[in-house]
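Hey, quick one: can you model this chain's 3D structure?
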Amino acid sequence: MQQDALKSAPAGRLKRRRRLNAWLFMVPLLVVNVLVILGPAVATVYFSFTDWAGIGPAEFVGLENYRDLLADESFWQAMWHNVIWTILFLTVPIAMGLLGAFLLSQIKRFQVFFRIAYFIPYVVASVVNCAIWQNILDPERGIGSALASKGIPFLDGVSFF
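Sure thing. Here's the predicted structure for all 161 residues.
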């Protein structure tokens, strides 16, 4: 019966309803983003213009903090280290990955073998990570039962899976 009502509704109304449903599903994500990302970012910008020790009222000092920062030799040294780190740890791995992909694409014999040998470390790391967490969260021999044996029983028998 509801499908008949949707079929008889004008296409524009149906489109608006679907758009509204999509936005309603996005509301929790938007709220979390505002609280977790936008809120602290705005607070950081605000407090960068103040002299505040973390306790008590913040005293507005304008651009004084930025003037002090730009005059500090340690800041420029740290900035230079960040530039070097960015250049090395972004460009070099990307270049190596592209070179590896190019070299693997040129191999005609044993191509599957070399691709498997190249990707096994990535796959093994994920599998080991899963196995470790599975053992930690195991209800019989994981963290819950270990805590219970020490007298802290609140996670004993809890199944995390």
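One thing worth noting: The mean pLDDT is 87.
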